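Our preliminary data section would be incomplete without showing what the modeling component actually yields. Below, a chain of 332 amino acids is followed by its predicted structure, encoded as tokens that our downstream tools consume directly.
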Amino acid sequence: MGSAPHLRSLQDLGAEYPLTWVCARDAQRLAAVPLPDGVRRTTRLDDILQDPRVRAVLVLTPPAAHLEVVRQVAAAGKHVLVEKPLELDLPRARALVACCEEAGVQLAVMFQYRLREAATRLRQLLRSGELGPLTSASASVRWWRPQSYYDVPGRGTLARDGGGVLMTQAIHTLDLLLDLIGLPQRVTGSVSTSAVHRMQCEDTASALLHYPGGAVAVVQATTAASPGYPERIEINATGGTATLESGRLQLSFMDGRTETVGADSGTGGGADPMAFDHGPHRAVIRDFLDAVRDGRPPAVTGRSALAVHTVIEAIIASSAQGRAVALNPDCA
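Predicted structure:
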């Protein structure tokens, strides 16, 4: 299921970047996947790693397998794009980034929200200073997953996914928020599992992110909000306000100007996790393949993705300890 937007994106890009191999452990499932003519199927990763035509590999396994697979891919000199999250926890995520840096290969991460048109415009305004200094912000992910979703073996467990709503669903919105406004100085968080779900990890989380100068950001995330609502980021600054909801940006400047950028691209926030447009996936994959071709870093680097892992770990630690957790500015 999770590979579908990647495969559609690769088919769109096939004339420029042809797909050569698809690998999966389950031969029956692999045989059932429709693929373009000439694409080879295998259950052996070595078949891909030994092919000199292959320069880049997409790793779409469950998070628990990322580090092992990426180590093999990087050691073979292939560039890597990995599905989010990087790994089960921050130490393993750091190890994954390090092995790619040591091997001298590019590492990109599928945080597709960053390359939506609306996010690109908002980032430009924040970087240029046109919106002014941050005063406050919020991120809300009120999604819905039925119990049947978590009845799939491994879903919402530490062993396979590394966590619940924070690592699997809200990570996209939280990553974008951090990409836009940076790491906080300290985090106060609370996580819990609601009465709606039977699962090991959290389906509900909230946090307060504290920034220099007194600015704060509020984070709310849940998969217990039926029928599911669009994810939303709000940023308030001295020069205006920005509201980013499901790919659409609404801007209101202090001088009276307004601006709308982008369009609703679907969220996957309801019972169907795949109910979204694959265009942002295609943008990340294209940028990654262009980066490999051009010898430059991708737009969404593995090292930049460590920020969201750092904050998720701090939210969970704060909840367990009952106090705010300070972040080292260089912790990511």
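The first strand starts at residue 21 and ends at 23. The chain has two domains: 4-112, 114-270+302-326. Preliminary results of this kind motivate Aim 1 of the renewal.
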